[in-house]
């Protein structure tokens, strides 16, 4: 007998169990997706708050080029990285907030 046939013994029970399992998995997946979306939104808000705080600190410190000005300059030149001086042995890099910008490490010196 074919196990998929409705006339097979236990075929209906097996099909019902599979449908129930699929439904449970779908519900868990939807809940997980909603949770991830919420956490991503929260993280985006935290990043934006951090950017604002850093910009405020830079203004308070008397740094002429604020983050917004640097981003404007960077995007007007078409580059993803900020103007920084290389330093031997350093692997830190200034990274753009552009979503498609490269994230490779570079040799640089943080200017203060």
Biggest sheet features: none
- Total strand segments: 0
* Gyration radius from CA atoms, angstroms: 27 Å
What structural category do the secondary elements indicate? mainly alpha
Oligomer: single chain
> What is the residue-averaged pLDDT?
74
Number of helices: 2
Short description:
This is Heat shock factor-binding protein 1-like protein 1. With 112 residues, this protein is mainly α.
Structural account:
This protein has a domain at 11-63. The longest helix is centred in the N-terminal third of the chain and has 50 residues, at 11-60. It contains two helices and no strands. The protein is rod-shaped and about 80 Å long. By secondary structure, it is mainly alpha-helical. It has helices at 11-60, 67-77. It holds the Pfam family HSBP1. It comes from Panthera pardus (Leopard). One of its GO terms (biological process) is cellular heat acclimation. One of its GO terms (cellular component) is nucleus.
